[in-house]
Specification:
This protein has 417 residues and is an alpha+beta fold. The chain has two domains: 201 residues, UDP-n-acetylglucosamine1-carboxyvinyl-transferase, Chain, CATH 3.65.10.10; 208 residues, Alpha-beta prism (UDP-n-acetylglucosamine1-carboxyvinyl-transferase, Chain). It is 31% helix and 25% strand. The strands form six sheets. A four-stranded mixed sheet has the order 21-22-1-23. The N and C termini lie close together (8 Å). It is found in: Cytoplasm. Pathway: Cell wall biogenesis; peptidoglycan biosynthesis. This is UDP-N-acetylglucosamine 1-carboxyvinyltransferase. One of its GO terms (cellular component) is cytoplasm. Cell wall formation. Adds enolpyruvyl to UDP-N-acetylglucosamine.
């Protein structure tokens, strides 16, 4: 099993280009099931999660061609040989559940297992099922599976009890082929929702309001094909911004939409880190003194839960006491014990972590417990004294394109073995 070995203490410098957003490309790949015409996705990040969802589509009989030289992905779901995605694949990755809405809307039947993914807390699918049911689907649950059928989905008004990204995406994809108008209230506002809506509109869907809490969808009879370039990954961008800050280095993070990382920029500046915004890039310069700051994770445009672990690594060497409150997932502090192995002083109190900054972290053998925890431990290792060995790095492969290679180009002493 692969491990990442880091010799800490080197200031990072240079430029790093951010890849396309994992959390955007996965629903867009699922949405390609809504049409029998070819969809071309450009500049794709070939991550482990992308491989999994492509395997799901392949198992259904979808034609897929990958041009790794151009970074393009060609998908044509002319017809399906099965309406039941592979149990093993869906259990491996939660985002696989996003194929449910498109298959149901286009073919009127789908059977899918309960989803898997990172063990960061309960992420129930009840909002997905409630929304699809309100659109007219007949849903049955049993033996670890969900089966849904419909003659024709019909537009309606749907209120989400929580602005769930996945539920908003699944309902939105199903509604584009429904009869009449669908209104999603208390919808998620994440940039990835806007990107999916833009892709669907290119196919011929009629969606307005994506990026606000009310999305209106006028159903159409059929969708066409299109070309689409996915937005940059705001979480990867934030991770490399913290890499610059935690090492006291100076890094230019390229291919970013600064509006998408506004909360990350604000918290870094509050911590005393220099951040300069330029067109499609940000320059981050570390400081000798990192200020303690309080963070509360919230749905977009609040501070992203997917950046909580990485920011905790930075605050573990800040001056003073920081309080990090996790409101999105109840089990997202599994990295705390690993950071404590490196000398961090962190106490958990319910859904809050109290982080008292220490002078320095020290290298240790640690384990990536999930995707973002893995990134946080790599960041901690970059600043730590001595050698850090991160195991279970397959989690990192799910969401970061060549993290070791990118960090090495910035001057990190890091190897994968």
């Amino acid at each position: 099993m692969s491990r990442i070995i880091i010799k800490g203490g080197r200031k990072l410098s240079g430029k790093v280009r951010i890849s396309a957003a994992k959390n955007s490309v996965l629903p867009i790949i699922a949405a390609s099931l809504l049409t029998g015409y070819e969809c071309i996705l450009e500049d794709i990040p070939f991550l482990e999660d992308v491989n999994v969802i492509l395997s799901v589509l392949d198992s259904l009989g979808v034609n897929i061609f990958i041009d790794k030289n151009k970074g393009n992905l060609y998908i044509k779901a002319e017809d399906l040989k099965s309406f039941e995605p592979s149990y093993e694949l869906v259990r491996r990755m939660r985002a696989s559940f996003l194929v449910m809405g498109p298959i149901l809307a286009r073919f009127g039947i789908v059977k899918i297992s309960m989803p898997g993914g990172c063990n960061i807390g309960s992420r129930p699918i009840d909002l997905h099922l409630k929304g699809l049911s309100q659109l007219g689907a007949d849903i049955n649950l049993g033996h670890g599976y969900v089966e849904a059928r419909c003659k024709k989905l019909k537009g309606t008004k749907i209120y989400l009890d929580f602005p769930s990204v996945g539920a908003t995406e699944n309902i939105m994809m199903a509604a584009v082929l429904a009869e009449g108008e669908t209104i999603i209230e208390n919808a998620a506002e994440e940039p990835e929702i806007v990107d999916l809506a833009n892709f669907l509109n290119k196919l011929g869907a009629r969606i307005i309001g994506a990026g606000t809490d009310i999305i209106k969808i006028e159903g159409v009879k059929e969708l066409k094909g299109t070309n689409h370039q996915v937005i940059p990954d705001r979480i990867e961008a934030g991770t490399y911004m913290i890499a610059a800050a935690i090492t006291g280095g100076e890094v230019t993070v390229e291919n970013v939409i600064t509006e998408h990382i506004r909360s990350i920029i604000a918290k870094l500046q509050e911590a005393g880190i220099y951040v300069k915004e330029e067109q499609n890039k940000v320059k981050v310069k570390g400081s000798q003194i990192i200020n303690a700051v309080d963070i509360k994770t919230m749905p977009y445009p609040g501070f992203p839960t997917d950046m909580q672990a990485q920011f905790m690594a930075l605050l573990s060497i800040a001056h003073g006491v920081s309080i990090i409150t996790e409101t999105v997932f109840e089990n997202r502090f599994m990295h705390v014990n690993e950071l404590k192995r490196m000398g961090a002083n962190i106490k958990i109190d319910g859904r809050s972590a109290i982080v008292e900054g220490v002078e320095k972290l020290t290298g240790a053998q640690v384990k990536a417990t999930d995707l973002r925890a893995g990134a946080a431990l790599v960041l901690a290792g970059l600043s730590a004294e001595g050698v850090t060995e991160v195991s279970d790095v397959y989690h990192i492969d799910r969401g970061y394109v060549d993290m070791v290679g990118k960090l090495k180009k910035l001057g990190a002493e890091i190897e994968r073995i």
